Amino acid sequence: MRLPRTLFGRLLLVFLLFGIVMTAALLYVMQVSHSQFHREFDQTVNRDLARRYVAANFLLTDRNLTASSLHQGIKKLAAANPEIDIYLLDDTGGIVAASVPEVGRHRNRVDLQPIKEFIAGRAAPILGDNPRDESGKDVFSAAPFHVADCPADYLYLVLGRAEDAPGASRMRNTFAIREGAGIIVLAAALSVALSLIFLRLLTRRLSVLERTMSRFESLSAGPNGVAPKRRGGDEIDRLEALFRDLAARIEAQMAQLQSVDAARREMLANLSHDLRTPITTLLAHLESLQMDEQPLSEQERREYVAVAMRQSKRVAKLVDQLLEAAKLDARQIVANPESFPVGDLLQDVVQKFALVARERGIDLTLSVAPAHLRVYADIVLLERVLDNLIDNALRHTPQGGHVTVSAGPNGERVVLAVTDSGSGMTPEEAARVFDRFYRGDLGRSTTSGQAGLGLAIVRGILELHGTTIAIDTRPGQGATFRFDLPGRPVG
Question: Which is deepest, 103, 117, 207, 243, by most CB within 10 Å?
Fold first, then answer.
């Protein structure tokens, strides 16, 4: 038998089983109570029956009182009331005469203690021995019996034979069943109705709490999060699983918040450093240009203006990167992909950095195979990705080194890579290289005008295209940044 899956169903099953057990117990109690009632009723109604028989001298005959005449008198008395058994007992409880033949009796002696209690007036019901049954007891009526020349001392009337009558027993049982059934049906109807109301009120609040927590779980997962998994068990089991999952998620989010807070503090420190240096230089040169005490020569003036322009461009570039990173976080930048030959874009980007590479003594090469290779992407955003990757490679490649930009097919996708022969990175550095404001070499990055946002922007743009970027690097062996794009529209 499978248990119901909901708490409501399980509680209802418990209530129903409890009701069945209580019904059986009630029927048993009612049956015993009815039997006890009828015994008490019979004994109370017939309490003076034996005394009246003795007072009426029903056992006396015109002949001398002998055992034979006693039996005849008892039989005459039993014929007048066949529903009772009549016994004459001596002072030890032995049967002197009886309406029941000797072959129908299982014992010839009766315990006198219940008879004495009955005569003393003890409240009914009082059970005495039934000679018809070896161990049975029944209600009775008794009275002292004193007749000259008669060895009997008590008249003992067993009243239980009326219960053995088929008609009376059937009527009593039928009445008990009807009465019990009526009470049980009424009680069951009220119990089920109240149980359903109570259980629904109890489980409804749990269900509302479960739905609320499930919605919270869906919201906390975010638009790109994993869909909430289906959980088995009843409401309590599902709530427990939800609490565990949410607790684990909250712990992870707390750790993430701590990491973000640490990155924010680091970002503010780096940003203030990156802005202070060019602004300080810019202010110093502008103040020098403004001084009248020591006029500058035309050559010095041009040099000061050139330095001020470079520093202004550094500040403008940093601000542009900050705005671009903020827009990527706010999902304000939308990719508009189209199919185009990637070789042409790579050729333009490499040509853009060719002069810088020559000035630094770095060999910048391009490799695209096949030449007609096409990708499906936003051409403007992809150019931004390539600009940042190539610029990063040139800055970290020493004089005499080389940087290679390549593209090649991989099934229905196109793999693009930028490889340099620089100093490479450790695994710890490679794990953080795409974090904002992370710079493995703070001094060199600062002097080059970079704030550690280029690779973070690369990752954000590629996420808009539904892909990721990987890095293959070792200390002293350069680095390769690799990502792939669809070669044609998906779907």
Answer: 207
Is residue 460 within 8 Å of residue 330, measured between CB atoms? no
Return the domain boundaries, the chain: 47-158, 236-327, 333-486
The architecture in CATH of the region 47-158 reads 2-Layer Sandwich (3.30)
Instruction: For 244-294, write each residue's pLDDT tens digit.
Output: 887 888 888 888 888 778 767 776 776 676 677 778 888 887 888 777 666
pTM passes above 0.70: no
Q: How many CA atoms lie within 13 A of 265 on its CB side?
A: 5
- Among 447, 450, 431, 428, which Cα is nearest to 439's? 450
Q: Are 186 and 117 in contact (CB under 8 A)?
A: no
- Using an 8 Å Cβ cutoff, are 435 and 420 in contact? no
Q: Which top CATH class is 236-327? A: mainly alpha
pLDDT at 282: 81
Strands 402-410 and 363-368: parallel
Question: Under a CB-based contact definition with an 8 Å cutoff, are residues 401 and 362 in contact?
Answer: yes
Give the chain's mean pLDDT. 80
